[in-house]
What we know:
Oligomer: single chain
Amino acid sequence: MITLANLSVVWPEFQLRDVSLQIDRGEFFALLGPTGSGKTVILESIAGLVRPTAGSIRVAGRDVTRLAPELRQIGIVYQDYSLFPHLTVLENIRFGLRYLAPAKRPSESWLDGLIELLDLRRILQRLPLNLSGGEKQRTSLARALAVQPAVLLLDEPLAALDPRFRDEIRYSLKQLHEQLDTTLLMVTHDFDEALYLAGRVGVLSNGRMEQVGPT
């Protein structure tokens, strides 16, 4: 599903060097490493937000290395939620659909299933200002999945949450993966989080992939 071949990103202050990785369809994979190790650089390279200096990126068999972000069929969820404050939960979830051609829009039953799975039905008319941290992150997950991406990227999805909400989102991610069979790539610095959620983990250090193995 995701293939990185000799991926490098060279900046004056940081270098990601020669990273190769294969993530299978339906797999939950975690990139583990300290701040500054290159986790988010890899994630944003896959999403199309960072242009690699060298190497290639393939998603679902298609070379997306130079493809615009909106053409990659990739969803991304950040730790800071990034919800539109003036839109309700339902409007946030449906936001991305307006950019899809009618023939490519998901069915209402798909959206309804997401809302049910992420337990959002009772808060659909609320604004983000009136949501807990856990509710905001579940809304972000639903918005990213609403357009039926080939891959869902998660950038430290639990890092900004109070401890009482972390278990809630951890459970939601587990349920999403098991019930939707979605390919997920998560970056984290939390070993226990990676161990609980992912089937395999890649360990990054100083811009290099040090090790890949099962949890």
